[in-house]
Design goal:
The structure is a homodimer. By secondary structure, chain A is an alpha/beta fold. In chain A, the strands form 2 sheets. In chain A, strands 2-1-3-12-11-4-5-10-8-9 form a 10-stranded mixed sheet, sandwiched between helices. Chains A and B meet through helix 4, strand 6, strand 7, helix 6 and helix 7 of A and helix 4, strand 6, strand 7, helix 6 and helix 7 of B. Strand 7 of chain A pairs antiparallel with strand 7 of chain B. The structure holds 3-isopropylmalic acid (IPM) (2 copies).
Chain lengths: 330, 330
């Protein structure tokens, strides 16, 4: 049976890089059924809703979704979509590619970010004229599920350089009950599974990653810590332009470049499709097409090292030229 | 009347760098009354309490406190001490010094971190076998007080290069009510005071700071954001070894190096006293000895550029030799 893949371009350069990624997917002899759906600023403008119910349901019922970017409405789109695919982990590799100018070229870290709770569970109240509160949520079950995933991830040799352990980053010296629980459950699962795990306070991690990224491989974090620390890693590899991500669910997944809509260059056909194409590679792997995913990655690395480049990487190629080069080298 | 300054060495290299900082303070013809007090792992070992009530009260009643570092008990010591001095802002300058190896030598950023609430207000509950929660707190009053301080700070020309505006970093797209309030109140105060303020999501800030630190000067943040983002800046200037901080209260203050106890080198007399000495400079300024504070800073910069260096900076000088050189150049 065909895999149903929902395609949501969204706003800005999402409309350019998502078609590029679809072109790469179509280059394989795989039976995909692509379904277009809408979300983002433009559809909100038109209908009043950034994420139409129809889109939510289409995504929830599909096998996987490829998403581009949304503008002002990003949070209104992406947080419910993560929920639609029942995602419990956000996989965010941050790798410096040969030939790309990076502050720390040795960076090769994969963040496994908890994707359902923490401050994102988001029960907020305005208790008085002066006082607002937010209830941050941590459960043993979500922490353990993330840890099980991390153990399988490193067990399968998917960590950078096949590293077989991981680091838990947290702030349990201040959030003793909540991050204390997160830390304890994650380390307990690692121990049960015989996986090496060490830990780092998230503030110390933020100091140490720029000083020496090679000391880290797979990093397991609560939701907001994963958001901030993976974006920090993006700064070390040269920006968000090349970074893919996977919101992995139990039987579904949502794949998106980490970058935004880049309004300054949107519509010109010069956006870098790399992050979207690498997100498509993660989608392929998630659907079991592991060999094809690897081929996309290899083609992307080859083009980055000596192929045409878009303006963000100092070249003057168009999105279409870079995409054609990637397809050519598959 | 003499200014009463409490001196808490704490653990590890705190016992070496705090005496060095006191030596610098004593070099001035200022009438200080130094009072020794205890806190940290060692006193916990001996008495069962990391922060004896007597220490808390001595600190609360003094004009200022110079603190070194605490080991495992850091949070048990430092969080109540911030409360003892009634601190509402943690001032954390992160500057790369000439002659010191830094990933981003152009970094010169001062973080003004909210110092009383956010997740540090810390109401945590274990609601079930599975579920723990933390209530994050944001008030308009604390947000506005921080913003007033920031406006005065830049108005007084204390921002890097005399910059007259600031950036608010927050995560209001997710924490809409709490960080929404923080952001709104801080920007409103800036507008009332005619101070330029722009804003950045904290995750975007974490990407952009390493890419180009020169775009930021004074950064105003909620408590945990300030913790993590200032530690990130530390990684760009070469580590925590040189960074001072000031916990500023209404009529009191607590001054501490950002570094920890450095157990690997503690007791050898080779710790770098710079961060503690620069914290003493902030203490001097806080007590109105602005000219003297400036002289300490200038002497430190001079020694860093061509004076004796401790091992962390590639030299082989002792703590005492570096301190003597600083005193010599005052
Ligand atoms: C848009 C925003 C809600 C989102 C997040 O905070 O998760 C984004 O920063 C990301 O990391 O995908
Ligand atoms: C020790 C810890 C509680 C403290 C904090 O989180 O504030 C430390 O990281 C700091 O930044 O001074």
């Amino acid at each position: 049976m065909a895999d149903e893949v929902v395609v949501i371009e969204g706003d800005g350069i999402g409309r350019e890089v998502v078609p590029a990624a679809v072109e790469v997917l179509e280059a394989f002899d795989i039976d995909f059924e692509f379904v277009e759906a809408e979300a983002g600023d433009a559809v909100k403008e038109a209908t009043g809703e950034a994420l139409p119910t129809e889109t939510y349901e289409t995504v929830a019922d599909a096998d996987a979704t490829l998403f581009g970017a949304a503008g002002e409405t990003a949070a209104d789109v992406i947080l419910p979509l993560r929920d639609a695919v029942d995602s419990f982990v956000n996989v965010r590799p941050a790798k410096a590619y040969p030939g790309v100018d990076a502050l720390r070229p040795e960076t090769d870290v994969v963040f496994l970010r908890e994707n359902t709770e923490g401050v994102y569970a988001g029960h907020e109240d305005r208790l008085s004229e002066d006082l607002s509160t937010l209830t941050r949520v941590v459960t043993a079950s979500a922490s353990r599920e993330l840890a099980e995933y991390a153990c399988e991830f490193v067990g399968d040799g998917r960590g950078p350089d096949g590293r077989d352990g991981f680091t838990v980053a947290h702030k349990s010296n201040v959030m003793r009950e909540t991050d204390g629980r997160f830390r304890r459950e994650v380390l307990a699962v690692a121990e049960e599974r015989g996986v090496d795990a060490d830990e780092e306070l998230m503030d110390a991690f933020a100091t140490k990653l720029p000083l020496d990224p090679s000391q880290y491989g797979v990093v397991v974090c609560p939701n907001l810590a994963g958001d901030v620390l993976s974006d920090l890693a993006a700064g070390l590899v040269g920006g968000l332009g090349l970074l893919p991500s996977a919101n992995v669910g139990h039987e579904n997944g949502l794949f998106e470049p980490v970058h935004g809509t880049a309004p300054d260059i949107a519509g010109e056909g010069i956006a870098n499709p790399t992050a979207a194409v690498l997100s498509a590679a993660m989608l392929l792997e998630h659907l079991g097409h592991v060999e094809e995913g690897g081929r996309v990655r290899t083609a992307v690395e080859s083009v980055l090292s000596d192929g045409p480049r878009t303006g963000d990487l100092g070249g003057d190629a168009t999105t279409e030229e870079v995409t054609a080069a990637i397809v050519d080298r598959l």
